[in-house]
Amino acid sequence: MQSPYHVLVVDDEENILRLLKNELSSCDRIVHTAENAQSARQALKKQQYDVIILDIRLPDADGLDLFAEFKMVTQDVELVLITGHGDIDNAVEAMRMGVFDYITKPFKLDRLEVVIERAYQRVCLQRENRGLRHTQAATSERCNLIGRSAPIQEIKFLIDKLTHSEVPVLITGESGVGKDVVAQAIHTRSQRATQPFIVKNCAMLFREMVRSELFGHKKGSFTGATEAHEGLVAVAHKGTLFLDEIGDLPEDVQASLLRLLETKMYRRMGENKERRADVRFLFATNRDLAKAVEDGAFNEALFHRINVFNIHIPRLRERKEDLPLLVEHFLNLLSNGRPVADMPEKTLKRLLAYDWPGNVRELRNVLERALILSDGKAITENCLPKELLDSGQGNTNAPPLSLENMEREHIARVLAICHGSRQRAAQVLNIGRKTLYRKIQKYGLEP
Ligand SMILES: Nc1ncnc2c1ncn2[C@@H]1O[C@H](COP(=O)(O)OP(=O)(O)OP(=O)(O)O)[C@@H](O)[C@H]1O
């Protein structure tokens, strides 16, 4: 059975809230209520809604302003406005701004129900479309392990050898070397290829929520657990679960993961029932886990369990023969069907002379920036970042930048190129928007 979808009604009239909650709730639709803008904001922090019904006149906010605010912080949600007769102009403006529909008070319940259903269908369609786009992008971009250096050939050989194996694999290497690409390739060539490939970065998990995210929880098992939750282990059933940055997994959860790897059994939070997991595990880290074990920061038994089969990806500067192929690959990929920009020999030499501390990810970012600057013409040296040109000339006078300073400068430059658009900058940098916000705060790059 499909899980129910969530509707939030924001209205200051208590009787309307009560009526809508009573009449519109069903086994496939859960109706939540909020009596003003402030409690709607709180509600949004706790729950992902599919449809929001919003009264245009609220005691503490203008419905249209609130709508604009919601649009900024939510995705995959449709809004329906409730308006009075005098608000028709506002309603028309709201439709222009992207509100799904509006209904005027007094309204008929069955009309509202039809609007909510249609809004929900649109949300589903958008999710499906994005899922398709995501899968296409992920498979075309990630499965393709580009490179002809000896280490990359060896890695391709190992991936082939793993086709019929279920052994956990630990993928190691600096940030940006391609650990994600290798994990995707292992899954795609495995017997589980048609089943889910679930990726989770352990460093991004809220500490208090890690156990629940991985193993799931029972309704009521802790404050705020208003619904039962399936963990990633259940979501990845029959498929592959790739845990990135495994070194960041909290210690108490490390023990439960070890038990799962050894016995294939786990328990949801708040439950005694044992569940069987049918999941293939892949792990990645850019930290020295053996050192973390020595320092007592990582469970030794778990380390041995996940380190049965290790694939190490060397830094890009240790396999520069991969660079021309990677350049060609990224220029094709980033041209988006437009004619592929030319890369003159001189520019390629500059790229080859550079050290690439951010590895393949940095190469991709540099090329994306260069493509913007070259305006569809050949990529000259002027399209490359200054530190790349400086370091390639063996500029020994300038003190070398720390990785942090380089990151700061690079983010500042990308933000400038993107005219301050954080969304665009996050795409160019190939990092999540939240990560970018954190870095902007950390480096004091706010305008
Ligand atoms: N050999 C490769 N062939 C094609 N693309 C690659 C290759 N290596 C890396 N990339 C691309 O470089 C970028 C960074 O790669 P990826 O995310 O796999 O790095 P990572 O090692 O997992 O980094 P992190 O530790 O920061 O998560 C991605 O856009 C990826 O598609």
Explain how this protein is built.
This protein has 447 residues and is an alpha/beta fold. The chain has 3 domains: 126 residues, 3-Layer(aba) Sandwich (Rossmann fold), CATH 3.40.50; 172 residues, Rossmann fold (3-Layer(aba) Sandwich); 125 residues, Helicase, Ruva Protein, domain 3 (Orthogonal Bundle), CATH 1.10.8. Helix content is 47%, strand content 14%. The chain contains 19 helices and 16 strands. The chain has a 5-stranded parallel beta sheet with strand order 2-1-3-6-7, sandwiched between helices. The chain has a 5-stranded parallel beta sheet with strand order 9-12-15-8-16. Helix 14 crosses helix 16 and helix 18 crosses helix 19. It is globular, with a radius of gyration of 26 Å. The chain starts with a strand and ends in a 5-residue tail after the last helix. Bound molecules: adenosine-5'-triphosphate. Adenosine-5'-triphosphate (ATP) binds next to helix 5, helix 7 and helix 15.
- Strand order, sheet with most strands: 2-1-3-6-7
The gyration radius over C-alpha positions equals: 26 Å
**Class per helix and strand makeup:** alpha/beta
> What would you say the CATH architecture of the largest domain is?
3-Layer(aba) Sandwich
The count of DSSP E runs of length 2 or more, i.e. the number of strands, is 16
